[in-house]
Amino acid sequence: MKYSFLTIPAVAALCLMGTGCAQGSADESYTSYVNTKIGTGGHGHVFVGANVPFGLVQLGPTSIPQTWDWCSGYHESDSTVIGFSHTHLSGTGIGDLFDITVMPVIGEVTYARGTEDAPQSGLWSYADRTREVSRPGYYSVPLERYGITAELTATKRVGLHKYTFPASEEAAIVFDLENGGCWDKATEVHIEAVGDNAVKGWRYSEGWAKDQKIYFTAEFSKPFDSFEVCGDNSMYGRASFKTTEGEEIMLKVALSPVSTEGAQANMTAELAGWDFDAVAKAADKAWNEELSKIRIETDDEQAREIFYTGLYHTMIAPSVFCDVNGDYRGADGKMHANDGFTNYTTFSLWDTYRAAMPLMTIIHPEKMNDMVNTMLHIYQQQGKLPVWHLMGCETDCMVGNPGIPPVADAILKGYDGFDRQLALEAMKASAVTPDRGQDLRMKYGYIPCNLMNESVAYDMEYALADWALAQAAKALGDEETYSHFLERSRSYKNFFDPETGFMRGKDNKGKFRTPFNPFASTHREDDYCEGNAWQYTWLVPHDFEGLVECFGSKEAFLEKLDELFTVSSEIEGGNTSPDISGLIGQYAHGNEPSHHIIYFYTMAGQPWKAADRVREVLSMLYHDAPDGLSGNEDVGQMSSWYILSSLGFYQAEPAGGRYWFGSPLFDKAEIRTEGGIFTVIAENNSAENKYIQKVMLNGQEYRKPYIDFADIKAGGELVLTMGNAETLWY
């Protein structure tokens, strides 16, 4: 590593250096390959702290700043800590949550967030980053102001703290219910002592999610000498102790979306004792079991680190959002009893329907029915499928109908642990809900740019969702619904201007918006969403042939596609979108609408160009450094693109399970699927031999440009013979 942030235990480091651990051994430590620092710089916005896969609790440090690059509460450029919060987002572009913040202190303090220019202005302390330790399921850092070392680990619903104190007559652990994330504001809080070693309470807040409610119970390993509710509006609780030099005090905090009683039941079920090391080991084991679902063979240690860190990032969310008995808070704000499934939250669907959800269908089949059932319950409770759902609240963030593709995809891939007819009903209802421009689209056949902001982006996202719905309807035997929404999925054609070769805003009179500049961007205030005409012209992953027809010929299409990667990378305008990042020409890998574009080359019969661009992105836009991502992690989507593309394929279409070939990065990968082990072998693979020459599936020559989900799911062996010749094998 090029920094002092410690991520790999000594024994694991020996494994990495090849001095004692055999590749693929039963006790291989996949967590040792994870570098939690990746994505903490630049605009990656990733979470750093202790959690388990898909857990409700993300326990980690929260810093003073409340600006964009602190959406996760942590940034590598800043070492302030106001406390350790139990909920965090990872990789988003909006900050929220940071519920139930805990800070160990010495002496009198000001009960406030504080400012960095005034050391006594709040509870905060600088963290000693030179002694910081972070690995999956465990986090530790010394707090310089107080001489206290904090250690954290977690179960799904409980955070476990261990604080090592100096000798003091004025030691304390403070609960901060006031300070949340960037956009979060507490609206009602409560905290009270229960005996001399426990507290309970709740925190209601509003922010990105408008009606958040979280309940908690907490227990100390040592009785407190006193407990007082303090600070402005009684938003803080202070448990005071006398400590000896090096004394350890532990604290466990259980969360519930339902009640303090539910939180207590969660604690009893998940963390009854005080064995910190055992909990940390259990968290490591949980991560190792999930990470081991894909085993790669490579001599490129940097790529291995990026791969497993990326895989780790894909499993922070969606997050469990129910008690151990299954009770949960629904999208209607009501409490619902266990309905036989695990309820989830943190659905960043505009991002994740593209790669993170398709990856989940392969490696997490045991979770897919619960994911879809959660979405269907959200539909029943709020009248439409989730758009961007957080803590039981619909944020309606981002454009289109992103809840439709993953539900359709699950149907098309044969998942059936949910009511498939209800799923079809939910998709249809969501597709005709007359809000967010859909009413205009149903009236005019497209969304006019003079009647709605971001009209092109909304409409094109609606179109691809319509296509996904149509495919699911056909699979379920509903030909009428199939025909209707298939036709509606072609609404994107209204925006194509054959004179310029771009998708452009069109008004309700049928005239294109002028003036027009395909390089221009005005963030969230033009016809596109976090993009410009160069990026949105290609947002037709569902109708490749139809898009080609817009250009008049495949040759013209390919000429324009080539130009996308070679034109100037300048974005023009006075308020350009910061999300247009990771640029190769005007291809913007740092934002999700571009993620399928490279695979158009394979669809168009030039897979060698896809291989060139895939390898370029894998090597240039992902790094094992804090600024290692080209844009927001976006709840696992940015990493999911890397995972799938480095395996050699990617689901470019929004649903259906055709994973189009690109260029595998690793010599061998073993993917644990529902049907067994699906092995991908890349023979003669190298930086020069990046082009697929021949494909064999289970010993038979294979002449398709994609691999079907059914073949991946079944297990088997895919052999890709690689070489340096630009070859068309299909």
Short recap of the structure:
This protein is 27% helix and 24% strand.
Q: Can you give a write-up of this model?
A:
The protein has 730 residues and is α+β, with helices and mostly antiparallel strands. The strands form 12 sheets. The chain has an 8-stranded antiparallel sheet with strand order 6-7-8-9-16-13-12-11. The chain is globular and about 80 Å long. It starts with 9 loop residues before the first helix and ends in a 7-residue tail after the last strand. Mean pLDDT is 95; it is low at 1-24.
List keywords for this structure.
six-stranded mixed beta sheet, alpha+beta, about 725 residues, 38 strands, about 25% helix
How are the SSEs ordered, and which strands pair?
Blueprint: H1 10-16, E1 60-62, E2 80-81, E3 83-85, E4 101-106, E5 125-126, E6 133-135, E7 138-143, E8 148-154, E9 158-165, E10 168-176, E11 185-194, E12 198-206, E13 212-220, E14 226-230, E15 236-243, E16 247-256, H2 260-270, H3 276-291, E17 294-297, H4 301-313, E18 319-320, E19 328-329, E20 335-336, E21 344-345, E22 347-348, H5 349-352, H6 356-363, H7 365-382, E23 388-390, E24 393-394, H8 404-412, H9 420-431, H10 438-444, H11 455-475, H12 479-488, E25 496-497, E26 502-503, E27 520-522, H13 533-536, H14 544-551, H15 554-564, E28 572-575, E29 583-584, E30 587-588, H16 600-603, H17 607-620, H18 637-647, E31 649-650, E32 658-661, E33 668-673, E34 676-683, E35 691-697, E36 700-701, E37 706-708, H19 709-714, E38 716-723
Parallel strand pairs: 27-28, 34-38
Antiparallel strand pairs: 1-3, 2-5, 4-10, 6-7, 7-8, 8-9, 9-16, 10-15, 11-12, 12-13, 13-16, 14-15, 17-33, 18-21, 19-20, 22-23, 23-24, 25-26, 29-30, 31-32, 32-37, 33-34, 35-36, 35-38
Helix pairs in contact: 4-18, 7-9, 8-9, 8-11, 9-11, 11-12
